[in-house]
Design brief:
15 helices; two-stranded antiparallel ribbon; single chain; alpha/beta; about 45% helix; globular; 6-stranded parallel β-sheet
């Protein structure tokens, strides 16, 4: 069994100082090769998605959305891993990966469409502009099976492990600590290990499965679960964007190159509610929340950049761009309007189906019965 503290990969401490943990040594050459522009991009990504996430939460509170799953606090885990993926890799998100999807090219308003109820999916995963990003999955853990099946297909089709890093493909799938208790996740790991599928299992341990703490969910560190299936597994500080980037980059390179699946447990914290449907003050204390707020991934990265000499103008520009992105999201969200009734029927089957056509016609007659004098 690993020791959770000694094996945690971390390069930035709580105050943003470059103080690598012993487990980070392997990753230091990769981290030291990151350019200033890339470092600033990581920070910009995190600030932008927090502004967008806050705006979406506000929209839900104002009745514009049915539901919103906030991602506040988990920006570093998502930005680091998403920036580590290559363009040819395929992404399987859960339902909170707002930073990941934005980096891959998905328009955040497409997530709003799903949460507002005007779309069954939100975006077309086959459209190249969406960066091989599959749809959000609100059924807990089911996307992990889909990801492993897709990765097995990559092997069968000779699209991984060929020795050509420019062409080889991998899959990265996101899920949470609650989903790690689902049977689907364990079945996926059995198949991924057995078939050496190029899957990277990216677990965001945000410490709470709605109101159930990790200490109740598991008697061992969650990283031990994937290791038990023979999958090389790494535990990383999920609030350290540099560590998240480095472990994800190497795990994806290894999976893409034919070494089989890899697993990452990103230890992070959900600063907000599980979704806007719950109230976290009912099940956790403010002391815990405050202790994690001190480890905020954005504050940590900002301190690191300031120590490297980033200018005040850079931070001001990032804040302004993030505010513009949030306002753009608001403006386009309130213009979405309500969906037509036809949308309920249009995407049940890929091809026209007589039963659906019959139901659609019946619904149209039913709606028309309310017109006229009301008799």
């Amino acid at each position: 069994m690993t020791s959770p503290e000694t094996e945690l990969v971390r390069v930035l401490d709580q105050d943003g100082r470059f103080t690598p943990s012993p487990a980070a040594e392997r990753y230091l050459p990769l981290i030291e090769a990151i350019s200033d522009a890339e470092l600033e991009q990581f920070y910009s990504d995190m600030v932008a998605i927090r502004a967008i996430d806050t705006q979406a939460t506000n929209l839900q509170r104002q009745g514009q959305l049915a539901l919103w799953p906030p991602s506040r606090g988990q920006e570093a885990a998502q930005v680091g891993s998403a920036r580590a993926a290559r363009a040819q890799d395929t992404i399987f998100p859960s339902y909170r990966e707002h930073a990941v999807t934005r980096i891959r090219g998905v328009d955040p308003v497409d997530i709003i469409k799903l949460m507002r109820g005007v779309s069954h999916g939100g975006w077309d995963p086959t459209d190249p502009k969406n960066g091989n990003t599959r749809l959000y999955t609100l059924v807990l853990g089911s996307q992990v099976l889909h990801a492993t099946g897709y990765a097995m297909g990559l092997n069968f089709d000779g699209r991984s492990g060929t020795g050509d890093p420019e062409r080889d493909e991998a899959v990265i799938v996101y899920y949470g600590d609650g989903a790690s208790s689902q049977g689907d996740v364990h079945e996926a790991m059995v198949f991924a290990a057995s078939y050496q599928a190029p899957t990277v299992f990216f677990l965001q341990n945000n410490h709470w499965a709605i109101s159930v703490p990790v200490s109740t969910q598991s008697r061992v560190p969650l990283v031990e679960r994937s290791a038990g299936y023979g999958i090389p597994s790494i535990r990383v500080d999920g609030n350290d964007v540099l560590a998240s980037y480095a472990v994800s980059r190497i795990a994806l390179d290894e999976a893409r190159g034919g070494a089989g699946p890899r697993a990452i447990e990103a230890v992070t914290y959900r600063l907000g509610a599980h979704t806007t449907s719950d109230d976290p003050t009912k099940y956790r204390g403010s002391d815990e929340e405050q202790s994690w707020a001190l480890r905020d991934p954005i504050d940590r990265m900002r301190a690191f950049l300031e120590n490297r000499g980033a200018s005040a103008q850079f931070f001001a520009d990032v804040e302004a761009e993030a505010a513009d992105a949030a306002e753009d999201l608001r403006a386009r969200s309130v213009e979405l309007g309500a969906p037509t009734a036809d949308k309920i029927f249009d995407h049940v089957y890929s091809d026209p189906h007589p039963l659906i056509a019959e139901q659609k016609a019946w619904h149209k007659r039913y709606e028309a019965s309310f017109e006229g004098d009301g008799k």
